């Protein structure tokens, strides 16, 4: 049974000169506990899809269902993690993590205990009373991950959360996120431009067309890769085979879109 469904979703951006079709007839479904990636050129609508699912933006046409309920009618928590950590520099780490529950009047001492436990789980046991300026970029992004998880969301939306990090830190965070999401049985959608990251993190990879955004092809990640950590996935023979197929698909689309003068 589908946990998340996009049913013929389209979206237009309107201006005084007309409109731009950002998404065209997007239909996809995600099972509970599944991790999928959206991969495609800039401007193909990947982040627009996340914004529609999160309820930040209303689609022009079509419906979005979460556990068979319209997304506008569900009370399930959705977590959204962005490329920047957006930690408030004047607040301590623990106060940054607990900002959401406080705003929603859901803060309890149990919430604070959960925040400290999650900080420990992500390898930051002694930073609660420190300020963001005392942390490295990778550490700050781990805090952002804890902030995303603190309300125990059923669905996680990840908009290029590792793209600003150095490669070694990026790989470590990929491993951490994959482990946490499997442990807590989270459903996730990742937006990325990185083919390797999409393969290493996902159960399925959705390739998108641009102008307007649409689903071009879906690649199933072999079970042998899904059972490995993201770092070990990259060493597997089937990783390179899938990488080459996805690269060929993306390269084909890029070549087709080039204008000949």
From TrEMBL:
Keywords assigned: ATP-binding, Nucleotide-binding, Transport
Domain ABC transporter: residue ranges: 4-235
GO terms for MF: ATP binding; ATP hydrolysis activity
Protein name (Swiss-Prot/TrEMBL): Spermidine/putrescine ABC transporter ATP-binding protein
InterPro entries: AAA+_ATPase, ABC_transporter-like_ATP-bd, ABC_transporter-like_CS, ABC_transporter_ATP-bind, P-loop_NTPase
Residues making up the signal peptide according to the UniProt record: none
């Amino acid at each position: 049974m589908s946990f998340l469904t996009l049913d013929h979703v389209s979206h237009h951006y309107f201006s005084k000169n007309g409109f731009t079709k950002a998404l065209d007839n997007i239909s996809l479904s995600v099972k509970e506990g599944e991790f999928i990636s959206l991969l495609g050129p800039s401007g193909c609508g990947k982040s627009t899809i996340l914004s529609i699912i999160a309820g930040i933006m209303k689609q022009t046409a079509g419906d979005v269902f979460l556990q068979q309920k319209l997304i506008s009618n569900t009370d399930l928590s959705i977590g959204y993690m962005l490329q920047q950590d957006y930690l408030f520099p004047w607040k301590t780490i623990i106060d940054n993590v607990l900002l959401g529950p406080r705003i929603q009047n859901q803060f309890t001492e149990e919430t604070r205990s959960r925040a400290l436990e999650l900080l420990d789980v992500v390898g930051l046991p002694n930073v609660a009373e420190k300020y963001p300026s005392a942390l490295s970029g990778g550490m700050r992004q781990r805090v952002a991950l804890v902030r995303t998880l603190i309300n125990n969301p059923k669905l996680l939306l990840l908009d290029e959360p590792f793209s600003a990090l150095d490669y070694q830190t990026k790989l470590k965070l990929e491993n951490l996120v994959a482990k946490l999401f499997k442990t807590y049985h989270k459903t996730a959608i990742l937006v990325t431009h990185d083919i390797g990251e999409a393969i290493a993190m996902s159960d399925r990879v959705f390739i998108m067309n641009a102008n307007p955004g649409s689903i071009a092809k879906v690649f199933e990640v072999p079970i042998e890769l899904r059972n490995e950590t993201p770092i070990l996935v990259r060493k597997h023979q089937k990783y390179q085979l899938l990488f080459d197929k996805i690269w060929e698909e993306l390269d084909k689309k890029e070549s087709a879109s080039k204008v000949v003068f």
